[in-house]
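Fill in residues.
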């Protein structure tokens, strides 16, 4: 198994610090970073700059001492790196040897689909909750962004060796569901939006007519509205499931909000909050002192009319997550839910159930604007007032929707350009990345040899600047995945894949792969195979295919 050069350098740097600055050796100042300028090396440490003031030492002189000790105390590191250099005011820069850079090719070919993944002896039980759309209409583009984010996050966390459960929470109780039933009932009676008798807060989309036509039961009289409600919710849940399957998203658990009431969990949470001494009565309502836990104001638990506010079942729901053994929970939600984060966390803390502060984690995504032909598309005929996920899938396909929705930070507003997503040019990021994979496949088809034999290729023949750059980029993949999982930022994987594709295209355009020299040809094919495998592994984690032809 090939060693990880970064891990080895960090270990050597640790030993050096234990000698030169023992009182600070355990403080993680020494983590390595990629220099902004390639000419400064492959890794850089600012430890001397960070410790100089504390030690009352000249930072450059301290950097020289640490640099010397890094190699002197760990001689084996010299097989991986050139002599460390001190640059600027005190940066210690490390440059990998050529053989170290190209060794990643063998590592990738040995690991195959597992390249980039980590293993844990004791995996953490993690739940990722996402989409969680009310069953009141088709999934919109915001739900699509949630689906892409949540599924990619779950895959990335799994790739770090943890056990992940994907969960969908159905808000199947409350006023919105009641209005859905009233809307379907009105349509079944022949009443249309705008007609006398249309519900005040009814849903006007054409899908309501579809549900009304599909419902064959009694639509008036005792129990009719409840029957319509159950049918409409089931109808829309099934429709949402169909769209999500088309999008390549599957859930392990579907949790119903209504079950929290049926099982008495909401009442139990209210009682526990009252027992905690953190509630008080005011103007006929029951309040929780959420300000004790960092909220900007106290929140109502039970309104004066006896009904509960929205955050109460949310607290009950998240308590079940903790009770089900999820040590870490990630919720993917729209930024319009930002206000709920503090009160849910406060409610959980008030329960005194041993739940850690900051539980759960949240990934909040911003809005998506859809543009076509230079103009914003706002309305889907079927949905009535918004563009649906199904619309995007029909227009550009799963791969483009997935990659595009993951190509920006979750909290950044995103413009989805339909024309760009359909373009077969390098400006289209998903096409550009997939084309790199397909290009390698084309080279291998021309070659016609046994790819398994490339594991024995002499990769020391890879000496050109572009070859070493591509190899170095491939070696960054495990670190990129670990950071993306840790920071809950799948967009960084999309960024990385674009950079990897660019490095490959640059290499492909500058060098002949199928040269006459058999040894050099094998080395170059091995490098291409490693790039292909890394591209496929990264795309897979994002839920995007890696086509062999385009």
């Amino acid at each position: 198994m090939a060693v990880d050069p970064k891990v080895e350098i960090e270990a050597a740097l640790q030993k050096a610090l234990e000698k030169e600055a023992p009182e600070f050796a355990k403080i993680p100042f020494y983590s390595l970073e990629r220099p902004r300028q390639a000419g400064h090396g492959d890794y850089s440490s600012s430890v001397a700059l960070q410790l100089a003031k504390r030690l009352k030492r000249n930072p450059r002189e301290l950097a020289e001492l640490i640099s010397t000790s890094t190699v002197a105390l760990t001689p084996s590191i010299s097989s991986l790196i050139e002599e460390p250099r001190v640059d600027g005011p005190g940066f210690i820069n490390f440059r990998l040897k050529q053989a170290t850079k190209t060794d990643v090719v063998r590592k990738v070919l040995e690991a195959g689909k597992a390249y980039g993944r980590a293993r844990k002896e004791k995996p953490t039980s993690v739940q990722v909750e996402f989409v969680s759309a009310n069953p009141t209409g088709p999934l919109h583009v915001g739900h699509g962004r949630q689906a892409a984010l949540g599924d990619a996050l779950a895959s990335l966390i799994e790739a770090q060796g943890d056990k992940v459960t994907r969960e969908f929470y159905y808000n199947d109780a409350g006023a919105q569901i009641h209005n859905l039933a009233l809307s379907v009932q009105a349509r079944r009676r022949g009443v249309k939006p705008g007609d006398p008798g249309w519900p005040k807060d009814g849903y006007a989309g054409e899908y309501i007519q579809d549900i009304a036509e599909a419902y064959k039961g009694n639509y008036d009289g005792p129990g009719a509205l409840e029957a319509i409600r159950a049918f409409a919710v089931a109808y829309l849940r099934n429709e949402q499931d169909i769209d999500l399957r088309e999008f390549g998203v599957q859930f392990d658990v579907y949790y119903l909000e209504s079950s929290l009431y049926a099982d008495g969990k909401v009442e139990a949470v209210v009682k526990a909050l009252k027992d905690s001494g953190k509630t008080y009565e005011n103007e006929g309502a029951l309040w929780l002192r959420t300000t004790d836990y960092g909220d900007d104001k106290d929140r109502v638990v039970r309104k004066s009319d006896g009904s509960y506010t929205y955050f109460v079942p949310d607290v009950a729901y998240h308590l079940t997550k903790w009770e089900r053994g999820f040590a870490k929970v990630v919720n993917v939600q729209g930024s319009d839910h930002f206000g709920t984060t503090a009160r849910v966390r406060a409610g959980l803390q008030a329960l005194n159930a041993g739940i850690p502060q900051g539980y759960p984690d949240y990934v909040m995504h911003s809005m998506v604007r859809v543009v076509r032909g230079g103009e914003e598309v706002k309305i889907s005929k079927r949905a009535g007032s918004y563009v649906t996920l199904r619309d995007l899938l029909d227009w550009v396909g799963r791969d483009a929707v997935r990659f595009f929705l993951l190509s920006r930070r979750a909290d950044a507003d995103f413009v989805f350009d339909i024309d760009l997503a359909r373009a077969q040019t390098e400006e289209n990021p998903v096409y550009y990345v997939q084309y790199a994979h397909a290009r390698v496949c084309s080279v291998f088809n021309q070659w016609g040899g046994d790819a398994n034999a490339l594991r024995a290729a002499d990769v020391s023949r890879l000496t050109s600047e572009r070859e070493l750059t591509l190899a170095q980029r491939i070696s960054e993949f495990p670190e990129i995945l670990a950071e993306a999982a840790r920071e809950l930022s799948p967009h960084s994987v999309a960024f990385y894949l674009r950079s990897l594709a660019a490095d490959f295209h640059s290499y492909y355009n500058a060098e002949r792969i199928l040269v006459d020299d058999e040894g050099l040809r094998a080395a170059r094919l091995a490098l291409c195979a490693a790039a292909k495998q890394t591209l496929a592994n990264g795309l897979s984690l994002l839920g995007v295919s890696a086509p062999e032809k385009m």
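The longest strand covers residues 163-170.
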